[in-house]
Design brief:
The complex is a heterodimer. Chain A has helices spanning 5-11, 21-45, 47-55, 61-75, 79-90, 93-107, 110-124, 126-129, 138-162, 174-188, 195-216, 229-251, 261-289, 298-305, 308-324, 332-353, 355-363, 370-378, 384-425. By secondary structure, chain A is mostly helical. Chain B has helices spanning 4-25, 31-49, 55-62, 70-78, 80-115, 120-139, 148-182. The chains are: A mainly alpha, B mainly alpha.
């Protein structure tokens, strides 16, 4: 089914993307039947060529196929271009395989699988190639293409006919179909006798895994995804992680615009580190402020900070006073202090109004640059009077820096970090 | 999730209690001592205000030691029985998962040799994520022994708790600053 998609887009309507899987299956089936009819016509007219095509040994496709094509092409005019075309159709195959090769790899040995897929692809591709070819050479090329196609598709048809009742499947059973197909492709190789068993067992296993699946984890394998229990569990785990990461993205400021897990983790790490540093710094600050370590303010503090409405008014009043003060020399210290209070005031207002607002207000003032703490540690052992002023200077400067720079410069910063890491990895 | 303001109040109360326990144990401290006392008591208060329901808080409690006095604070805030139980269980967990972690590491190293043939970009991206995850493990307390899903959950919770802590501490710091000039 997957394999049929590229040529489907050429033969069927262009709206393949919007079709459901069932519709795709039906369309493909129709297309194959058309092909069969066409091939039968071709069969009658080109018996000799057919024999040659049937004689083509299917077991060593990769080596035998190009040689065969060139041998066939040597007879006719457009042979060379045809070979190129078909080879062009073969080449993209490995890239296509990557996305969905898992289930079939589980069922078939990989080497045999690759051979099969390359063969079946070439067998189904030429109709897609043909319309693009020149009008004069068209019939000749078709002939050759069908020649390769015929023995394969006939066999395929036989098996398809036997399993036709299974073809009326819903979307959920698409996996069994893919395995079905794989085994039919398997038929094309030398193991024609054992394929029926093979197909049944593979279908059985896939169905069994699908029956088991919805009991525990509600993960559905989309087209081309693996369905064994390990990869299902892995996918469930990954979904869980990405969900949590989304929450984290909401929580960590400046993480919204970052895509990619590494960048997000970077941002989260930075944020946690900044918070931890802030705790360090604040504890240092508190230790420097009151030498006796008794916060007698606790009752007062609890009253002042937490009960809501009066405090905000109080803070606002102080802010108003500080803005009215015009003489900077005498009230310098006081003014500073009030500047510090203002963000705090906003924070408390946020708490009182709603939780959403809280998150916003928290996220704004929290981040500090790295040098902040270091410089404060350096100034730690200066005299206590100068220490306060220094700290406050640092606090204000650092605060402004953190506010202005963190919003804008975090993105390039992480980018450069990744770049350096990348270099290191290389 | 609890109401953040109630969480704050809880944290503040416990923090001040922890500080009182500290100050009763030793009287004269240098600035560094005081700083450490404040930090430790704040951490323990944070962990205990989360009721030890999360792994990181249990790791913080389990990380308390007797000789720097933090164990006393934890005992005072949580009760002796709870602390002992947490310590025992966490030591069991860490020991068992440490050994399995070693085995895992070894097997991963074997697997990595095979993966070298994979496409380079994918490999690098995975390595980058692994590296950051390891760093994050080092940051979140107790994160060394978590799987990735629970690590991210715990990080979520830890960030919220840290935000609370920082807010309360900043408020206290600002009021402590305001107090001297107004007096």
């Amino acid at each position: 089914m997957n394999r049929a998609l590229p040529e489907m887009s050429n033969t069927a309507e262009n709206c393949v993307d919007t079709l459901t899987v069932l519709e795709r299956q039906r369309a493909r089936f129709k297309w194959q039947q058309d092909q069969l009819l066409y091939q039968q016509q071709q069969l009658q007219s080109f018996n000799g060529m057919m024999d040659y095509g049937a004689g083509f040994p299917p077991s060593d496709h990769l080596t035998g196929f190009p040689g065969f094509m060139s041998a066939a092409g040597a007879g006719g005019d457009g042979g060379l271009s045809l070979v190129e075309m078909v080879m062009g159709a073969v080449k993209p195959d490995p890239g296509l395989e990557d996305g969905w090769s898992d289930p079939s790899l589980l069922l078939n040995p990989p080497t045999a699988y690759e051979l099969n897929s390359s063969l079946s692809r070439t067998s189904s591709c030429p109709p897609a190639v043909n319309p693009a070819a020149a009008a004069g050479r068209e019939s000749f090329k078709k002939r050759k293409a069908e020649k390769v196609q015929n023995p394969i598709n006939n066999k395929e048809k036989r098996i398809k006919a036997s399993s036709e009742e299974e073809k009326e499947e819903e979307e959920e059973e698409e996996l069994s179909k893919t395995t079905d197909q794989n085994s039919t492709k398997n038929n094309n190789s030398t193991i024609t006798t054992t394929t029926n068993n093979n197909r049944e067992t593979s279908a059985d296993t896939s169905k069994a895994s699908e029956v088991k699946k919805p009991d525990y984890i509600h993960v559905r394998a989309r087209r081309g995804q693996a369905t064994d229990s390990h990869s299902l569990a892995e996918r469930a785990r990954r979904e869980k992680i990405s969900e949590r990461m989304k929450y984290l993205q909401d929580l960590v400021p400046g993480c919204n615009k970052i895509t990619g897990k590494a960048g997000m983790l970077d941002e989260i790490i930075n944020y946690v580190q900044s918070l931890q540093r802030q705790v360090e710094f604040l504890s240092m600050k508190l230790a420097a402020v009151n030498p006796r370590l008794d916060f007698n303010v606790d009752d007062l503090f609890l009253k002042e900070v937490f009960p809501p409405p009066c405090t905000t008014a109080n803070f606002a009043a102080i802010g108003g006073i500080s803005s009215e003060i015009t003489d900077p020399s005498s009230y310098f210290q006081f003014n500073r202090n009030n500047q510090q209070i203002v963000p705090c005031c906003g924070l408390e207002m946020g708490i009182n109004t709603s939780d959403v607002a809280l998150r916003r207000t928290i996220s704004a003032p929290v981040s500090f640059p790295e040098n902040f703490l270091d410089s404060s540690c350096l100034t730690q052992f200066q005299g206590s009077s100068g220490w306060d002023v220094d700290l406050q200077n640092l606090y204000n400067v650092g605060f402004d820096q953190g506010r202005s720079s963190n919003a804008f410069s975090s993105q390039p910063y992480t980018g450069s970090m990744e770049g350096s890491n990348l270099k290191m990895e290389m | 999730m609890r109401n953040p303001s109630s969480l704050k109040r809880d944290f503040l109360k416990k923090w001040l209690m922890g500080l009182q326990i500290y100050t009763t144990t030793n009287r004269n401290m240098t600035v560094a001592d005081r700083k450490r006392a404040i930090k430790l008591s704040a951490d323990i208060a944070l962990a205990s205000s989360r009721n030890c329901a999360t792994r990181w808080s249990r790791a913080v409690i389990a990380g308390t030691s007797v000789h720097d006095g933090s164990f006393l604070v934890a005992n005072g805030l949580l009760g002796r029985a709870v602390c002992e139980r947490i310590k025992q269980s966490s030591s069991k967990i860490t020991r068992s998962s440490w050994s399995s972690g070693k085995i895992l590491k070894r097997s991963r190293r074997v697997g990595r040799r095979k993966k070298c043939r994979k496409p380079a970009a994918e490999w690098i991206a995975r390595r980058l994520v692994q590296k950051r995850t390891r760093t994050l493990r080092g940051l979140v307390p107790g994160g060394e022994f978590m799987d990735e899903v629970s690590l991210i959950e715990e990080t979520l919770d830890y960030i919220l708790a840290l935000q609370t802590q920082v807010d309360v501490m900043r408020c206290l710091a600002t009021t402590a600053y305001v107090a001297p000039p107004s007096l």
